[in-house]
Write a structure and sequence with these properties.
It is a single chain. This protein is of the alpha/beta class. The protein has 5 helices and 6 strands, in the order ββααββαβαβα. The mean pLDDT is about 95.
Length: about 170
């Protein structure tokens, strides 16, 4: 069965098959995780993304990892928090499901996620962690990739939230 773990780490330095980018609709880079991934992957990522035509909220696109340790990047666009009444939980869950489905289709065994929508998109962290863990848990399978799902946190507070949610789901 797939293993889900939490790491407080810079996602751009992880040696996994694929990292997930919390992108904006243009896929052309931005701030936060998106900007860090674009900087670490190098200019070829921006050139490649220009040809993708963007990405709708809740959807995902695959690109090479270029200069990253990860071979691939899955870009997904999380929802901007507007109080929860505009489908934000379903859209956020879709980001995780679509990324996991791409990883499975490509037979990628390890995937790392940032805390999608928790930065400038304003999604409440506790609610986002609940969606992330529940969606990843519902996707795992004994016989299909990915075998390792990493939920990354850039700071200790988010790592603690994710770990708490992961423990809660186990009981």
């Amino acid at each position: 069965m797939a293993r889900i773990e939490v790491l407080q780490v810079d996602i751009t330095r992880l040696e996994v098959d694929v990292i997930v980018n919390a992108a904006n609709n243009s896929l052309l880079g931005g701030g936060g995780v998106d900007g860090a991934i674009h900087r670490a992957a190098g200019p070829r990522l921006l050139a490649h993304c220009r040809g993708l035509g963007g990405c709708a909220t809740g959807e995902a696109r695959l690109t090479p990892g270029f200069d990253l340790p990860a071979r691939w990047i899955i870009h997904t666009v999380g929802p901007v928090w507007s109080g929860g009444g505009r489908g934000e939980p379903d859209l956020l869950a879709s980001c995780y499901r679509k990324a996991l489905a791409i990883a499975r289709e490509q037979c990628l065994d390890s995937i790392a996620f940032p805390a999608i929508s928790c930065g400038v998109y304003g999604y409440p962290p506790d609610q986002a962690c609940a969606v992330a863990v529940a969606t990843c848990r519902s996707f795992v399978s004994d016989d299909a990739p990915p075998g390792r799902i990493v939920l990354t946190a850039f700071d200790q507070a988010m790592a603690e939230r994710l770990s708490r949610e992961l423990r809660r789901e186990r009981t």
